[in-house]
Amino acid sequence: MSQNAKVKELKVDTTAASAGPINGADLFIESLKKENVEVMFGYPGGAVLPLYDALYKNPIRHILARHEQGAIHAAEGYARVSGKPGVVLATSGPGATNLVTGITDAMMDSLPLVVFTGQVATGVIGTDAFQEADVIGITMPITKHNYQVRDMNDLPRIVHEAFHIATTGRPGPVLIDIPKDIAGMIGEPEFVTEVDLPGYQPNFKPNSLQVKKLRGALVQAKKPVILAGAGVLHAKASEELLQFVEKMQIPVVNTLLGLGGFPANHPLFLGMGGMHGTNTANKALYETDLLINIGARFDDRLTGNLAHFAPSATVAHIDIDPAEIGKNVETHIPIVADARAALKKIMSLDFEAPKADEWRAKLQQDKVENPLWNTEDGEGISPQLLMKMIHEITEGDAIVTTDVGQHQMWTAQYYGFNKPDQWVTSGGLGTMGFGFPSAIGAQIAKPDKTVVAIAGDAGFQMTLQELGLVAELKLPVKIIVYNNMALGMVRQWQETFYEERYSQSLIPVQPDFVKLADSYGIRGYKVSTEEEAAKVLRETLTDNEPVLIDCRIKPKEMVYPMIAPGKGLHEMIGVKPQ
Ligand SMILES: Cc1ncc(C[n+]2csc(CCOP(=O)(O)OP(=O)(O)O)c2C)c(N)n1
Ligand SMILES: [Mg+2]
Known about the structure:
- The chain is of the alpha/beta class.
- It has three domains: about 20-185, Thiamin diphosphate (ThDP)-binding fold, Pyr/PP domains (Rossmann fold, 3-Layer(aba) Sandwich), CATH 3.40.50.970; about 210-370, TPP-binding domain (Rossmann fold, 3-Layer(aba) Sandwich), CATH 3.40.50; about 385-560, Rossmann fold.
- It has a six-stranded parallel beta sheet, sandwiched between helices. Strands 11-10-9-12-13-14 form a six-stranded parallel beta sheet, with helices on both faces. A six-stranded parallel beta sheet has the order 16-15-17-18-20-19, with helices on both faces.
- Helix 13 (about 300-305) links the parallel strand 12 and strand 13.
- The longest helix has 15 residues, at about 70-80.
- Mean pLDDT is about 95; it is low at about 1-10.
- The structure holds thiamine diphosphate and magnesium ion (MG).
- Thiamine diphosphate (TPP) binds near residues 403, 431 and 484.
- It comes from Domibacillus aminovorans.
- GO terms for molecular function: acetolactate synthase activity; flavin adenine dinucleotide binding; magnesium ion binding; thiamine pyrophosphate binding.
């Protein structure tokens, strides 16, 4: 997309156009206010000091994380549960590069972020000036779009475009790099209320012909299945999905990121699909004759070996991003549209539900024969039962965030997400260190909700500095460390695929998490049995205070069932208790 989009004919906001001479830093704050920004997450430094000075005089709520990575994961958690863009501000050089993981994470999981980075002054760009980094070059492939402001008069337009691009179509991160001298320049720019981006026109309306094709396929189908991804959540289409499913009586599989888009306790829900999905979900994806993908991207962790993915299916794919259609899986009925609009359109056509009684009965039987299971012996807390306890005590209504690893998969399998926007996880990038700070952002977005951060003992140690933020803001985040003294998921792969050579996956030395919490003035507990866990969880998950609970889980428990790398959906291992 061109940065030099025409601005001449744009509608200007006459209420603010008379702001008079203003400097770039004040203009930055005013531009954020125009976008109704209520909170931003950031960390100051030299190149953004003028922006922070303007913020001091004209405040917008600013959350001072303890590391830029904490700030951006918090912004992601905020965006995921609020539906509003997360706003981040960091300084040039190391401030900006510390954001790179979070920006990539947001890009992979389609989260709307507007990220501001400071830059060295325009006169010294390219001279290896102090704290200079080529943030535009670095973030080009990991942003939906990025800008460097070269004229302060462009700032209102750029900010307005950035919020538009981040939040429309397939959401994603947009970055604005602001050289230090821009903040000091004086101008009389106009605020715009429209965008003119000829190269960026997301299509929301489904094509009637393709929708009719889908109707034709539905009428014929004997083994239909819906694969519902995060696109359902982004499009706020859960209600429509439920209506469609109930009308058509089609079984539903969720992707990892799509959990909560369809109620887990619904009789037609088959579970999560993919590497650690349920046997029934994967069986359905393997045997289906009509696969309707709504807002999922056919990620390899979902499909397994593509040669064995839905081999007999007519594939329909509804996605707002045309680049997703046919990317990994041959698609027969492409519907480029907003998921909600597409579902409404299909339901507006009158036709009978597919005749799939036999199929539903078969899947139902598989659900009964091959449920998720857990070991019953061995020392330590069963991680699966622990998750069931957390579900029960929070009445299935908490916002739950995770890090990446075994605990993430157990949460996905066992929490049982019945509502949209309760589930915050790093799916595409699989970022350890994401879970805890994203819970902070989620709690800031939803102060009245119970927010539970499920963290691995290793992942938690990547961003635990944000305990300072929990203490400072008195956020009642519930931090539950699934402690197996290991990089559990790495250990699992080494046990299964590397003949138990546990190379660098065990962590013999850890902080005393109880004392660590205490040092921040946060309650800490260590629990080693299911009885202790039940007692502490009951006492602490329902009140309005932060808590950290170090849960000693069975160190050798495996996440099952599983599709080994390179294998197909029909080749799950660990389906039955071993
Ligand atoms: C930043 C980052 N580094 C490395 C990995 C690879 N990795 C995936 S899971 C995992 C182990 C995580 O251990 P822990 O946080 O204790 O969770 P567990 O699997 O034990 O539940 C590792 C190292 C990753 N996903 N992210
Ligand atoms: Mg671990």
